[in-house]
Design goal:
Layout lengths: L5 E6 L3 E7 L4 E7 L4 E8 L2 E8 L4 E10 L3 E8 L19 E3 L21 H19 L2 H4 L1
Parallel strand pairs: 1-8
Antiparallel strand pairs: 1-2, 2-7, 3-4, 4-5, 6-7
Length: about 150
């Protein structure tokens, strides 16, 4: 009987970061198809590990790259069209238990290009006012009248 390794994923508008957490994997086989079919298989300690996913959208197989390391298998999958996917796989509903967000690589859509957009708001004025308020409060709390 085969098992599923833990898969962690994150995305950008143009790519998917997919990491298979399986240390010391042997006989690693990876297959990525243009329609978004992703197949992984490997053996560890005599157990077969298999993943067969239908990704949310089409991918560019020629531009995608992977590295098989001693602790995991890392795949950078290039999307066929540059846009944000609502999820990694086509299947709607409950996400499979072995599929997790990779919070080390995760970036929200609005943060991809260098940070959050606050519509040109200038926080320097608010920061100065807040500092003045804090200074005023600390002088009130240290006055002799309140210490008695």
């Amino acid at each position: 009987m085969s098992r599923h390794p833990i898969l962690k994923w994150a995305q950008r508008s143009d790519k998917i970061y997919l990491t298979v957490d399986l240390a010391d994997a042997k006989d690693v086989k990876l297959k990525l198809e243009p329609d978004g079919k992703f197949i992984f298989s490997a053996v560890k300690d005599g157990c077969d590990f298999v993943v067969d996913l239908e990704l949310f959208d089409k991918v560019n197989v020629e531009e995608s790259k992977y590295v098989v390391g001693p602790r995991n298998i890392s795949y950078i999958i290039i999307k066929a069209e540059s846009n944000w996917w609502p999820r990694l796989i086509k299947q709607e509903g409950k996400t499979p238990a072995f599929l997790k967000a990779d919070w080390d690589k995760w970036v929200d859509e609005d943060e991809e290009n260098g940070g959050m957009d606050f519509d040109g708001m200038d926080f320097s004025v608010s920061w100065k006012v807040m500092q003045q308020c804090e200074t005023g409060l600390s002088s009130i709390f240290t006055s002799e009248k309140l210490l008695m």
